[in-house]
Known about the structure:
1 helix
Amino acid sequence: MRKCARALPGQRAYAQKPNRKGKNVSVIGAISLKGLLTQWSGLGSIDALTFDAFISLSSRTSALAWRSRSNG
Length: 72
């Protein structure tokens, strides 16, 4: 659907506006030189508290995964 209507010269343009908008989806990812470490996605916006929780949880899980790979 177009955002702007088009009409012949001298004629009035009629168009419908797109009225349905989707919800906001936020995505956070942690990557390294070897690839994707972890990701999170959720509806709505991300505040500082959510981001800090992601960083602390992802750093713990990546450290555990790294330890298990290096030991095994």
